[in-house]
Amino acid sequence: MRWQEACLLGCWLSLCAAESFFACPSSCKCNSGILEVDCSGLGLSSIPSDIPTNTRTFLFLNNKLSILPGPVFSNLSALQRLDLSNNFLDQLPQNIFSDLGNLTELQLRNNSIRALDKDLLQHTALLRQLDLSINGLAHIPSGIFDDLPALRSLSLRSNRLQSLDRVTFEPLTNLQQLQVGDNPWECDCNLRDFKHWMEWFSYRGGKIDQLACTLPKELKGKDMRMVPMEMFNYCSQLDDENSSTVLDNTGPPCTKGSPTPSKTKLGPEPEVEPSVGCPQKQRYRPVSVRRAIGTVIIAGVVCGIVCIMMVVAAAYGCIYASLMAKYHRELKKRQPLMGDTEGEHEEQKQISSVA
């Protein structure tokens, strides 16, 4: 009996210890079975400081969070899922996630984040899902995804992105889904290399939504993957000219010329013209495939008409020559055997007139 009482007492004490070990913050909802803390939709402007250290899931959606202090997650090394969506975050400290080595899912959807530090995700090697959609991102720094070999899902929808660098996404060898829609993409030379990467990503089975072009106007609304590579042939020429300009520019920086100071004169001021050493760069634009095909068709039709005209002229010349030969034969037959000089003279006149 004493042994049974001791066992019951031990179980009761262990339950009390477990409840005290996973103490739920005030006004939040907790699930000790899955070690989840849910503080969503409470209008909070700061993260509670009494979150249990063994929490695996922390939900902080639909609040008024605008600032993340540096050490706010320093005691949550066991955290696996973090959701800070629908808040007012405008920047993220560089080391804010440095203690979350077990993090596998990070949700930052619908905030006001405008910039990301390239070392922001340096210590989250187990991250599999990252959502940065509906923010104000205009640039993704190169190297930010270098330490995320396990990342499978990435969302960059509804930002202010105009171009992406292929080198930034090449380390994501296990990426399966990428969302980049609803951005003001400029389908120019800056996006050409990323187009190659998208084609390779789709070829190996990755899923990517539509990357619709905004500029230039000839490609507005078209998916970048469907744009022919011939549209970017001018990029190579532009790169060559830029490289040659850098190599040749050994003197002072090129500036627009200005009128040289001289003695004060009455009259109209001289117009400012670009200096001879500063030629204006030609702005290349992608060639329209439809226009190129139309030009080829028109050129083919014109060449065909010219060839037909040449054939007709050659045939007319042959017919004319045969008629003249026949005419000469008829004249020769009509000549008398004892021809007089007058008849011959008239005949020569007729032949010369016909010729």
Topology, element by element:
Layout: H1 2-21, E1 29-31, E2 36-38, E3 57-59, E4 81-83, E5 105-107, E6 129-131, E7 153-155, H2 166-169, E8 177-179, E9 185-186, H3 192-203, E10 207-208, E11 213-215, H4 234-248, H5 289-334, H6 341-354
Parallel strand pairs: 2-3, 3-4, 4-5, 5-6, 6-7, 7-8, 8-10, 9-11
Antiparallel strand pairs: 1-2
- Overall body shape: rod-shaped
Based on the structure given, which CATH architecture of the largest domain is correct? Answer: Alpha-Beta Horseshoe
Ranges where pLDDT stays below 50 over 5 or more residues in a row are 11-20, 255-267, 269-277, 279-289
Average pLDDT level: 80
Count of DSSP strands: 11
Number of domains: 2
- Structural class, by secondary structure, is alpha/beta
What Rg do the Cα atoms give?
41 Å
Number of helices: 6
Question: Biggest sheet, in brief?
Answer: 9 strands, mixed
**What would you give as the CATH superfamily of the largest domain?**
Ribonuclease Inhibitor
- Strand order of the main beta sheet, please? 1-2-3-4-5-6-7-8-10
At the third CATH level, what is the topology name of the largest domain? Answer: Leucine-rich repeat, LRR (right-handed beta-alpha superhelix)
Domain LRRCT: 183-236
Keywords: Cell membrane, Disulfide bond, Ion channel, Ion transport, Leucine-rich repeat, Membrane, Repeat, Signal, Transmembrane, Transmembrane helix, Transport
Signal peptide: 1-18
Membrane topology: Single-pass membrane protein; Single-pass type I membrane protein
